[in-house]
Amino acid sequence: MEATQTNAVATLLSTLVMETAHLCSRDLQASPEGMIDCTQDGKCRNMLAMAAELIGFNNLVANVISGKGGSFPTPEERDAFAATINTQAAALAGIEASAGAVCAAIEGVDADDWSTKIMAPWGMEVTKAHMCAWSALHMAYHDGQINLIQILNGDHEVHWMS
């Protein structure tokens, strides 16, 4: 395949998504069971709930980029899905699979289609490239929350560097 700037965009986006998923997974792997379901006395969601949200969001991004469309789940659908992400292993497998789904969708985008405007599920017009970047941004956002829970519970390590 001839290397073009557009292919470089696809490579960059896939790398960004997989790298962010890796960092988030490393932090989640380093969190013991008591910390994974910690809500800071009900003040925040636990790590598994955050993982469920980012898994669902990644799958939504993959569907939108693939032309299948999609919308945010209802609160009942969201809660039912979150209940299935009830272990560290389920969260890690879901993060890997959902990031893979985004990357598969990225591979399916035509070379001249990265600047095509689409409607994001939250009502904002974005390019296909921007929509893919949201997957990584969203994972990084929740990874930061995971890091905060770790710090508040005495874990000050940078887990993805080890």
Structural summary, described in words:
This protein is mainly alpha-helical. The chain has one domain: Up-down Bundle (Four Helix Bundle (Hemerythrin (Met), subunit A)). It contains six helices and two strands. The protein has helices at 5-29, 33-36, 47-65, 75-84, 88-107, 128-152; strands at residues 117-119, 125-127. It has a two-stranded antiparallel ribbon. Strand 1 (117-119) and strand 2 (125-127) form a beta hairpin. Helix 1 runs antiparallel to helix 5 (88-107), helix 1 runs parallel beside helix 6 and helix 3 runs antiparallel to helix 6. The radius of gyration is 16 Å and the shape is globular. The N and C termini lie far apart (35 Å).
Features:
mainly alpha, two-stranded antiparallel ribbon
The total count of helices amounts to 6
CATH topology: Four Helix Bundle (Hemerythrin (Met), subunit A)
Name of the CATH superfamily:
dinb family like domain
Text of the CATH class: Mainly Alpha
Described by the principal axes of the CA atoms, the overall outline is globular
H/E element sequence: HHHHHEEH
Tell me which oligomeric state these chains represent.
single chain
Helix content: 55-70%
Overall number of domains: 1
In total, the number of strands is 2
Sheet-strand content, in percent, reads under 5%
**Structural class determined from secondary elements:** mainly alpha
Strand order of the largest sheet: 1-2
CATH architecture: Up-down Bundle
Distance between the termini: 35 Å
Instruction: Work out the radius of gyration.
Output: 16 Å
Average pLDDT across residues? 92
List the uncertain runs.
Answer: none
* Main beta sheet strand tally, sense and closure: 2 strands, antiparallel
